[in-house]
Amino acid sequence: MSSVAPKTKPATDTPDVVDPLPPMRWSNILNELNWLSTIILTVVPAMTIYGSLTTKLRWETALFSVFYYFVTGLGITAGYHRLWAHRSYNASKPLQYFLAMAGAGAVEGSIKWWSRGHRAHHRYTDTELDPYNAGEGLWWSHVGWMLLKPRRRPGNADVSDLSKNEVIRWQHKYYLPLILGMGVGFPTVVPWLFWGDLRGGFFYAGFARLLFVHHSTFCVNSLAHWLGNAPFDDKHTPRDHVITALCTIGEGYHNFHHQFPMDYRNAIKWYQYDPTKWFIWVCSALGLASHLKVFPENEVRKGQLTMQLKRLRETQEKLAWPSDSNDLPVISYDSFIEQASKRPLILVAGFIHDVSNFIDEHPGGAHYIIKYVGKDATTAFFGGVYDHSNAAHNLLAMKRVGVLHGGLPQGLQEKTIPPSQRLKVARYAELSSVSGHSSASSEKESSPPPA
């Protein structure tokens, strides 16, 4: 593994590049490790495995471990993430202290440190200035960025608002005793005091729970940028998926979140799994939270529509469409009659169609087509004999081989467009081109004749 520092100086709003680090090889791997993170992320799973092999799991401890997993997980999702990193709602002082203590129990750094990195992640998503850049791979964005020393500092992020918050200053000042107390002490003492399971509390509610909380959060940086779809914006890697939501206490609708980060929700449908949203809403109902921010529904639906139209455009471009009238030869009526004596041609709405490969497949019988060969079947096709389906109109348009000179019946201009093309998706440039052409034509037609 190797990394080379960029030679060009970054823009003024980006940080200076760190001093070049030597290429990473197995011979110097010990010098490239972030030892604090490495120790934490190694000791926690090791203690979990050892404890599970040597300690019986009591049902009371199992239930408490799951409960405390959600408590400390919400400290990250509802506290660190949605409250402090994105300011998506306001919280009362009691709720802030609760979330600060619960977040400390997740042992993922202080609020200020965590939020600074996360704001940089949103500002510089999928770039070198993104501290957990998904472009570097699933392993890197999940845990690698914490184990190895970065080749450059993450992008700038303003956290001056957090520095003024007394709860955040308090947590930052007492962070070490808080993580020891909330991360290991509290989950050990509760099972010991209430049902005499000191060892189970230590290993299961302490370390096993912490292991799940860690990787639940890490999945937001990795799995949520890899699994799922992009219903709001596909310029970057964030994705929406219910599996990720289940793994991350509701943070799995990540495409929505990156598009509307100030919204207190991740999931916008009532049935989508987002316990963090439900927790914030309940806190609001109890008067502990207020000013829950919701992005305007109209703009959310625009984002969805944009992606839906893009997908439709992609499907549209894979389909075969009728030849444009400008690309077809203009044929006189006499020529049409002459050619129809040699091959089955019929006339519908000013277009000449070759139906040779459809005569035997016609649902109404071959004789209905044969009797209109060399004739104008416009009236018959548009309801005179049968009110044909959209599929029939679309199929007929694919059989156009020419345009009859002066043969478009008055009032049938709209009917010459098959149903499949009446709502065709067009890019803005194409619309502008058509609009400009129409304006020019109108201008030309409205000009007075030359003297």
From TrEMBL:
Enzymatic reactions: octadecanoyl-CoA + 2 Fe(II)-[cytochrome b5] + O2 + 2 H(+) = (9Z)-octadecenoyl-CoA + 2 Fe(III)-[cytochrome b5] + 2 H2O
Pfam families for this protein: Cyt-b5, FA_desaturase
Main location: membrane
Domain Cytochrome b5 heme-binding stretches: 346-405
MF terms (GO), sorted A to Z: heme binding; iron ion binding; stearoyl-CoA 9-desaturase activity
TM spans (from-to): 33-50, 62-83, 174-195
Membrane topology according to the record: Multi-pass membrane protein
Entry-linked InterPro entries: Acyl-CoA_deSatase_haem/ster-bd, Acyl-CoA_DS, Cyt_B5-like_heme/steroid-bd, Cyt_B5-like_heme/steroid_sf, Cyt_B5_heme-BS, FA_desaturase_dom, FADS-1_CS
Stored CDD domains: Delta9-FADS-like
Keyword line: Electron transport, Fatty acid biosynthesis, Fatty acid metabolism, Heme, Iron, Lipid biosynthesis, Lipid metabolism, Membrane, Metal-binding, Oxidoreductase, Transmembrane, Transmembrane helix, Transport
GO biological process, one term: unsaturated fatty acid biosynthetic process
Entry EC number(s): 1.14.19.1
Gene3D superfamilies found in the cross-reference section: Cytochrome b5-like heme/steroid binding domain (3.10.120.10)
Keyword Transferase included in the entry's annotation: no
Domain of life: Eukaryota
Function as written in the Swiss-Prot or TrEMBL entry: Stearoyl-CoA desaturase that utilizes O(2) and electrons from reduced cytochrome b5 to introduce the first double bond into saturated fatty acyl-CoA substrates.
Protein name (record): Acyl-CoA desaturase
